[in-house]
């Protein structure tokens, strides 16, 4: 049985993934008076929480895990929502979303953070759209069991990408890292915890990812012993963090 980690137990990693909270939070329920006639009652629960600076436009949107393609499309097509103002889109656990929503996600052209962790219904073709997000700094694909090494061959990440979370992507290995590393010129942090096929052979590909500063790995005997052996041979330029 695969051991699932609780990232919230790791302060440094937890802070990393939740580092830029906005100043004030309001709920979408405040705005329902303007759109309730256009939304079925059954869809209200799927409306996202909005986070914004004071009374300005929403800069962060987090959708309920039960959101469907239809509900997602209905919301983002609202005339009072400017998608260019959204900097963070959180779709954590939205397993009902499919390829139809991938085409909708690409409308958020100014995103800095995209979280599609656990969205197992979204096809890996979403990666082909990522290059359009020229300001994207953080991408969370954790739990994407549908992801394979070969999917990164056509992946063209934006230069701005600094943090990539592949926690629980069981189909991703150190061989995929070789393909990926050559394309991530500005990547600082890579999270590959619970990637069962990922091992310390990735160290041989580090010259391709010369900007990398932090790698998070699951703790196991192979990784721990292997890492100690590498440290004894030569100093590393990056920090490797082991997570239970």
How confident is the prediction overall: mean pLDDT? Answer: 77
The fourth-level CATH homologous superfamily is Ribonuclease Inhibitor
Helix content: 10-25%
Distance between the termini: 15 Å
**What pattern of helices and strands is seen along the backbone?**
HEHEEHEHEHEEHEEHE
**What's the architecture in CATH terms?**
Alpha-Beta Horseshoe
Counting helices, strands and paired strands, the structural category is alpha/beta
Number of helices, where a helix is a run of at least 4 consecutive DSSP H or I residues: 7
C-alpha Rg, in Å? 19 Å
Total of domains: 1
- The name CATH uses for the topology is Leucine-rich repeat, LRR (right-handed beta-alpha superhelix)
pLDDT < 50 stretches: 1-37, 39-45, 52-56
**What is the 3D form?**
globular
> How many distinct beta strands?
10
The CATH class label is Alpha Beta
Task: Give a written overview of the molecule.
By secondary structure, the chain is of the alpha/beta class. It has a single domain, classed as Ribonuclease Inhibitor (Leucine-rich repeat, LRR (right-handed beta-alpha superhelix), Alpha-Beta Horseshoe), CATH 3.80.10. A 10-stranded mixed β-sheet has the order 1-2-3-4-5-6-7-8-9-10, covered by helices on one side. Helix 4 links the parallel strand 4 and strand 5. The radius of gyration is 19 Å and the shape is globular. The two termini are 15 Å apart. The N terminus is likely disordered.
């Amino acid at each position: 049985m695969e051991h699932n980690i609780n990232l919230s137990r790791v302060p440094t990693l937890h802070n990393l993934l939740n580092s830029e909270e906005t100043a004030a939070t309001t709920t979408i329920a405040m705005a329902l008076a303007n759109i309730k006639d256009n939304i079925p009652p059954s869809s209200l629960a799927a409306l996202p929480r909005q986070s914004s600076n004071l009374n300005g436009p929403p800069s962060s949107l987090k959708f309920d895990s039960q959101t469907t393609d239809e509900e997602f499309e209905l919301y983002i097509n609202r005339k009072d929502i400017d998608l260019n103002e959204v900097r963070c889109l959180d779709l954590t656990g939205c397993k009902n979303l499919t390829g139809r929503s991938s085409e909708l996600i690409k409308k958020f052209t100014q995103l800095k953070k995209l979280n599609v962790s656990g969205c197992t219904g979204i096809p890996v073709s979403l990666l082909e759209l990522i290059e359009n997000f020229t300001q994207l700094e953080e991408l969370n694909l954790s739990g994407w069991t549908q992801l394979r090494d070969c999917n990164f061959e056509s992946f063209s990440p934006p230069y701005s990408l600094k943090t990539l979370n592949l926690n629980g992507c069981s189909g991703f290995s150190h061989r995929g890292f070789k393909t990926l590393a050559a394309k991530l010129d500005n990547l600082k942090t890579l999270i590959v915890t619970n990637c069962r096929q990922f091992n310390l052979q990735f160290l041989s590909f580090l010259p391709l990812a010369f900007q990398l500063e932090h790698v998070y790995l699951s703790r196991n005997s192979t990784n721990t012993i292997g890492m100690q052996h590498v440290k004894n041979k030569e100093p590393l330029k990056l920090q490797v963090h082991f997570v239970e």
